[in-house]
Every structure is written in structure tokens, then in C-alpha cells.
Amino acid sequence: MNRKKVATRLAATLSVGIFALALWALSRSLQEYRAADILGVIRSMPLTLILASVLLSLASYVALAGFDWLGSRYMKRPLSWRRILFGSFLAHAISHNTGFAALTGGSIRYRIYSGAGLTLLDVGGLIAFAGLTFSLGALALSSQAMLTEPVFLARVLGFPPFLVTLLGLLGLGLVGGYFIWGWLAERPLQIWKWRIPVPGPKLGLAQLSMAVVDLVLASAALYILLPAGAEIAFPTFVGIYVIANVAGAVSHVPGGLGVFETVVILLVPEASPGALLASLLVFRAGYNLLPLLAAPFLLAAYEVREAKARANAVHSLRKVAEAMAPPLASVLVLGAVLTLVLSLATPSARVSLNRLEAYLPLSLVEAAHLAAGICAILLLLLIQGLGQRKRASWAVALVLLAGGALFILVKGLTWSPALVLLAIAGLLACTAAVFDQPGPPLPRHMEMPWLALLWLVVVGSMWLTDFAFRPRDWVAEMSIMSHRAETGRALRTQMLLLFLASAVSLWRLSLTLGEGRDGRRV
Q: What residues have CB less than 8 Å from 227, skipping those under 6 apart?
């Protein structure tokens, strides 16, 4: 087995483990709260405050573009500010939600910046420079928080105050060492066959300033949403935000989901955990969700404009559509999976339960609940085939989307998620010509990142079910069957999802062991 595959499998396994651990810690903090309490806090938030948070988030994205602007000038490959702002926004909008920023954000940057003459190597250097810039600002801000509030951070971290102060001094020493190195270095840094110019003190100061502005704006977008009980100074909170952000990034969980929230809740103990989670959800909607929703439309508009500028516009547009359809279809189907999971793991309205009891037999409702769970798992398994443009994967996905919408209606008469699934099915149906490759709908060999995604969805679904329904005894609740016993149906569906995920994992393990016995590289 080569080292790359070992590293991939280890990273995927750790991300699932860290995600599960973060959700466990989150559950302990929220054990006195219900989902209705969180929604109530969100509804009570002033709209002006939410809009201000969104504007601060957008300002943070502008500051992030400054990382690429500085990097392009450092490499002496200057780009226009307009192109940098567009490319940086798209790259961060996607990488902030999917994780693996170098891969996801790098591909978007290359697509946008290659039009201005940058090579793949140039883009790699740009990403490295941006990562260094972020690290410089994160180190400086977290260090200042440790030095200005050592007693507070020592209490919440469980460290002695002198150790927190020592870590703060060490962090500022590293920042200072970066500037001294840039000032004293007389020759470029030699790494293998590449000679890398050392950033001078002026460029280092610009890096630090841009990173600090970005992190201050992003943390301010969350700070203004904090509940009244969170009596914490803004400079200290900036350091906490940085620590939570770094923890989410190194976990490799997509978007740091669950990890970021857990760290913030643990490091702001004065605030009500339920109210703080509501603030975090609103912040996520403005900082992560809105840019992610806008990104595909902006990218599509860019591709159309680029295609029109070419000689054969019709042919170019078709090529663009063929290139974009598989990844966009994969994202849409993943959205359908999350819609199904959210519907299965949260209670239906009481009015819907009354109608179920009046019009539908219990056996049909129970079967629809389980069938919707099976649709979610199968759709998740089909995403890999959609990325490979398999016709069978596309056809089966359409059937499952339509079936999932029907099952969601039957299991709880909830129209909104059913309409979302039908809308996704309609968009997918428009891409029929793109999916022309033969092969079975389900992958013969499931890649490790997809297996990790499967478990992230299942673990997240189980946690959400537990939080939304608060069952006192899972075994006892699962044995109750009636139209109004929605908790039991939800728990039985979660057990089904767990069984299916385990079966898929064992199947993949058997394939891996089989390859090993045959003597082939795994």
C-alpha cells in the first residue's frame, strides 16, 4: 500500500472520529436544550443585526482576496483586482464548506487565474502564500489573546496561567522571527530545485495586516450575534474565533462543521449554550451558506462570458456545460441527501401527524420513513458515478429523487423538502445528454473520501435525531409504533442508516483485503 493511500485513509478516518467527538461534546453542552429552543432564539434575533453580520462576512471575503493580491505581486505575476476578487470569492466560498482548501480552492483559482496566464505551479505558489498569510495573522491574534487574557483562557482551556502566557510569548516570537528572517535573509530560500524569494519586512507587514483585517471582520460577524450572557471582550473573542477556526480546518471535516461550534461553545462558557448555538447557526448561514449558494451561478456566468468571447460560441458553451454538469449534479444530489436526512431527523408538525392518522395506514407511513432513509444512502453512493458521467447513475438518481419526494410526503406530509427534491430532479433531468458513459450505477470500488462522507452524514443524522427528539431510551422508543410515535420511526430509520453504512464499509474492506491477497497494490 503506497503512502498516499495510507495518508488518505488516515485523514478520512480521523475526520469522522473528530466529527463524532465534537458532536458528543456538543451534546453534553446542549443536553438541557431542545431544537425548538434554538429556533425560538433565531426567530427573536433582530433582522438588522443579521444583515450587519452578513455584510461583515462579505467584507471578510474582500479581505481574503487581499491574500491573493499580495501573492500575485510577490511572485511578480500581477493580476487585476477584479479577477482576484472574483476568483478568491469563488475559491473560498467552496473551500470553506467542503474542506481540503488546497484541492477545492486550488482548482477554482486555476480555472479563473489561468485565463490571465498563470500556470498550475503559479497557482500552487499563490495558495502556499495565502496559507502563510493566514497562519501569520492567526498566530498573532491568538497570541495577543493569550497575553491579554491569560487567566480567562487558562480557566476555559484547563491550563495553568503561566503556560498560556508562555504560549502567547512563543507565538509572538515566531511572528517576530518571520520579520527578522525577511530582514536579514540575503539570498532566496532553496527548496529542492526551486529558489523562493524571501518576503521582506514590508511585504510581511502587509501580510500580517491583511490577515488581521480578515479575521477581525469574520469574528465581528459572529461577535455581534452573541447572546446577551456572553460577557467577553472583543479582542479575547477574536483569539477564540481563531482557535476554533484552526481546529475546524485541521480536522478536515467539511467546513469544520461541528468542530468549530464545539470549540466556540466550550471557550465561551458564560453564554447559554443553546443561545450560542443559535448565533453560530445564523453566522454559518451568512458566512458559509449564502456564498456557497451564489458560487455556482457566478461560475456559470463566468463560463458563459468566456465562451462567448471564443470563436465558436455554441460549441464552447456545449463544452462548458459538459464539463460543469457532473460536478454540479453531484453537489445537487448531495443537497438532496442532506434534505432527506434533515426531514427524517426532525419532527413533523402536529397538524401533519393528525392528517396521517386520519388518511394513511400506519404500515404505509412506517415503510415510507424507512424507504426515504434508503433513498438517502443510495443517492450518496451514486454521487461518485455522477462525477464519472455514468448514464445508469443519472437514471437511478432521478428515480430515487422522485421516490424520495413521494416517501417524504407519505411519512409526514411535509411539502417543502419534497418540492426541493423534485426541483433537484428537474435540474438533473436537463443534463441527460452529458451522462453518456456506460457502467453500473453504484461504484465497484468506493473511494475512501466518499466512504468518509457517508459516515459523516450518518453520524450527523444520528446526532440531529437525538437532539431533535431527545429520546430517553432509544431501545424502548424504537419499539413504539403508532401514527404519533414519530420518535420511534426516526430512531428505527437511524438504525437502518447505521446498518447500511456498516454494510458498505465492510464491503469496501473486503475488496481491499481481496486486492491485497491478489498481490496488487492497494
A: 41, 271, 272, 275, 276, 278, 279
* Residues 239 and 144: beta-carbon distance below 8 Å: yes
The closest alpha carbon to 409, from 426, 421, 399, 398, belongs to 421
* pLDDT tens digits, 97-119: 665 555 566 777 877 887 777 88
Question: For helices 120-148 and 150-157, what crossing angle results, to 10°?
Answer: 100
- CA dihedral over 40, 44, 47, 51, signed as positive or negative: negative
**Element (DSSP H or E) covering residue 191:** strand 189-191
DSSP string, 456-484: HHHHHHHHHHHHHH--S-HHHHHT--STT
Q: Determine the Cα–Cα distance for residues 351 and 210; give it in Å rounded to an integer.
A: 52
**Short-list 271, 253, 297, CA closest to 459:** 253
Q: Which runs of consecutive H residues, i.e. helices, occur in 225-272?
A: 234-251, 259-267
Tens of pLDDT, residue by residue over 181-239, are 878 766 666 566 656 667 778 888 999 999 999 999 999 999 999 988 777 888 888 98
What is the rounded distance in angstroms from the CA atom of residue 329 to the CA atom of residue 341?
A: 18
Buried residues in 347-360 as b, exposed as e (16+ CB within 10 A): bbeeebbeebeeeb
* pLDDT the model gives residue 186: 63
Nearest to 284 by CA among 255, 263, 264: 255
The SS3 call for residue 228 is coil
Q: C-alpha cell of 153?
A: 483562557
Query: What distance in Å separates the CA atoms of residue 286 and residue 295, rounded to the nearest whole number?
Result: 14
**Structure pTM?**
0.78
Residue 261 CB: number of other CB atoms within 10 A? 26
CB-facing half-sphere around the CA of 368: CA atoms within 13 A: 24
Q: Indicate the pLDDT class of residue 353, thresholds 50, 70 and 90.
A: low
* DSSP letter, residue 433: G
The Cα-based distances of 426 to 6, 294, 339, 414 in angstroms read 40, 20, 16, 19
% of the chain residues with pLDDT over 70? 84
The full length of the chain comes to 522
Q: How many whole angstroms separate alpha carbon 385 and alpha carbon 133? A: 38
Cβ atoms within 10 A of the Cβ of 519, count? 7
CB-based contact 351:446 (threshold 8 Å): no
